[in-house]
Design a protein that fits this description.
The chain is an alpha+beta fold and 188 residues long. The chain has 4 helices and 9 strands; from the N terminus they run E-H-E-E-H-E-E-H-E-H-E-E-E. The protein has one domain: Cyclic phosphodiesterase (Cyclic Phosphodiesterase, Chain: A), CATH 3.90.1140. The longest helix is centred in the middle third of the chain and has 17 residues.
Length: 188
């Protein structure tokens, strides 16, 4: 199974991401938008592992969620990987209770290391992928386009209620991937 751990964006918040994406697509028509069913905030990508690992990952999530109650995050800005000026991926960064995000992420990271699984050593940047740009040559976002992206994010966005952590599997399907929820650990 191809595992990853993420915070799912509730259905009631997806329209605001679709509005961001629609505005983005007007500015960057070649951007391939993330489908609404795949909008999430990844905490850890585990990759291809044996199915029997599922139980250990569920225990890891329970430990990561311990003593952390529900919290809110709010869309705040658009950025890109590897950077905003030459993006291959465009994403929305979040604000508000991100200290809880970092705590959960660190606990997951430590748990993966304990299980001797690969843990991403890059700096964790809480983000929600909204689009990819695959067109060569490298795409350039100049200062004018960057200002227009800032205007998109000047709106007042509704906070996103985070009430659980989920374990997903990513299944290839017709050249893309489908995400199936394997487990949900409630924050209480």
């Amino acid at each position: 199974m191809r595992f990853f751990i993420a915070l799912e964006i509730p259905e009631e918040n997806k329209p605001q991401f679709q509005a961001i994406q629609n505005s983005l697509h007007t500015l960057i028509p070649q951007a391939r938008l993330t489908t609404p069913d795949k909008i999430h905030l990844t905490l850890a990508f585990i990759g291809e592992q044996s199915d029997h690992l599922r139980e250990n990952l569920c225990l890891l999530l329970k430990e990561a969620a311990k003593e952390i109650g529900p919290f809110e995050i709010t869309p705040a800005y658009i950025d890109g990987f590897p950077n905003i000026h030459h993006p291959k991926i465009l994403w929305v960064g979040v604000k508000d209770d991100i200290d809880k995000l970092y705590m959960i992420h660190e606990r997951i990271h430590d748990g993966l290391e304990y299980l001797k699984l690969p843990a991403d050593e890059r700096r964790f940047i809480p983000h929600i992928t909204i689009a990819k740009i695959n067109n060569p040559p490298p795409f350039l976002i100049d200062r004018n386009l960057e200002r227009n992206l800032e205007k998109i994010m000047a709106a007042n966005f509704e906070p996103i209620q985070i009430v659980s952590i989920k374990l997903f599997e990513s299944v290839p399907e017709g050249g893309l991937h489908k995400h199936n929820t394997l487990a949900e650990i409630k924050l209480v």
